[in-house]
Structures are given as C-alpha cells and as structure tokens.
Amino acid sequence: MVPNRKDMAVVSDVAAAFLQEPVRSIQPIGQGSANKNFLVETTAARVVVKLSHEHKRRRALQDYQKERWCIEQSSALGIPGPSVLSVGEADDNAYMIETFVEGVNG
Question: Which fold has domain 5-99?
Fold first, then answer.
C-alpha cells in the first residue's frame, strides 16, 4: 500500500489531537476492503489508526461504531485484542484509533 499525502495528513492530525503530542512516525501496515491501517508513533505511544477507503466513506463511521461495540463485547468475554480509543470523522474520512497489540496478525 502506498499512502497518499492527504491520508497521511489526516492520520497525523487525528492521532496528534487524540494523543496530545506530536507524531514522530507513520507507517502503513496494510489494508482491507473497508480501511487503510497505519501504525502511528509518538514519544509516549504506539497506536493503530484505521482510515476509511473512499468508496466506504458513506457508512464507515457507523461501521467503526459497530466494530467498537463488537470489540468491547469480545473483550468483556476475555477475548484478547486491541482497545478502541477513539472513533470519529476528520476531513471527510471516518477513522478509528486503537491500541497497538504486538504479535502476528490473525
């Protein structure tokens, strides 16, 4: 995946605003049919930012809110995974910020 400058700017802006510190690096870590995934690092944190694909923007915010609910339900049952830190919209993009979990992608 080769990210475009607009995506990188949106990811940087939402991560910096949420984490309340400047972003040191952004690394694309893959994409699915619904979103592009980025590993964002600051001095104190590593998070994953999911950014909606253009063709999914109309429903992406609703989908991320549903995904947050699913993650919370599975976590309550003891299933390990990331925690959702934030869901929102910025510059016509829906996004989700999650904790970074070390390991092999399932």
Answer: Phosphorylase Kinase; domain 1 (3.30.200)
pLDDT digits (tens, 9 = 90+) for 9-18: 999 999 999 9
Q: Taking the CB of residue 60, how many other CB atoms lie within 10 A of it?
A: 23
- Rounded to two decimals, the pTM is 0.89
Distance set, CA 6 to CA 3, 11, 21, 90 (Å): 8, 9, 20, 11
**Domains of the chain, residue spans:** 5-99
The DSSP string of 42-83 is: -SS-EEEEEEE-GGGHHHHHHHHHHHHHHHHHHHHTT---PP
- Pairing type for strands 46-52 and 84-90 reads unpaired
Confidence grade of residue 59 (pLDDT, cut at 50, 70, 90): confident
User: What is the C-alpha to C-alpha distance for residues 106 and 95, in angstroms, rounded to an integer?
Assistant: 21
Distance of CA 83 to the CA centre of its chain: 11
